[in-house]
Amino acid sequence: MKLTDQQFRFYDTFGLLKFPGLFKDEIIAITGAFEDVWAASGRQHDYTQRSMIAPFADRNEYLSGLLDDPRIDGVVESILGDDYNYAGSDGNYYVGDTKWHSDHHPYAPYHSLKIAFYLNPVTRDTGCLRVIPGSCHWGDKFTEAVDEVVPVTAESRPEQNWGVDGSEVPAYPIESEPGDMLLFNHKTKHSSWGGGDRRRMFTYNFEQHFPDDLLPSLRGLLERRRERGEEAPYGDAMLHTADPGRRRHLEQHLQVWEELATGS
Q1: pTM of the model
Q2: Total Cβ atoms within 10 A of residue 250
Q3: What does the pLDDT read at residue 189?
């Protein structure tokens, strides 16, 4: 499944897309696999703060296999090119509000994005994803002004700078039902407000294939993962079920990870 020209232009302008009901026929299997990963991990969600497992989809053959689905592969390829990298996955139980942030710096020199599946119905006031459209274009006055108030590495300050609560920042709420697929640029500012204490969501993360001049950025990303104690860039289920088509999207991370491990 490729993006239409209109969908691509929408994403390129606003930094987000929603695909209503795209996986409605698979949502029971997806939800079951999500719960299986949590059960196998031995982790318990205590309902007081966000709980996360990463890598996540990599631990389950069914969720790993969804990367090969043309509804995911084709959409990502439309944006990042056919040599894109799979960058990892996380599974979450969210609790309450998530304040404004972006996943990558707006001035990062590479393009990356996230695909998200919410496994509970979420609305504007019950924890759906909210985004500030167009906040992903570094060099643009609007993006830079938003980034001063909502930086990646510090607490967001809308009350101090704009005189409004974070929940009142002008934004687009992406209300979602289980089976919808959401996609957004990692640089897009986003948040959620009013959610309950067991809000399930998991993501796949992707980035462009890094040309030689941007390899230091990839090395930095993977080095930080190694410093957090990760032993490999991907989980066993992701690797042993990978055919040559999927393997192409894993190779660059595997190669750079090995170079970091051997000091080469």
Answers
A1: 0.95
A2: 18
A3: 97
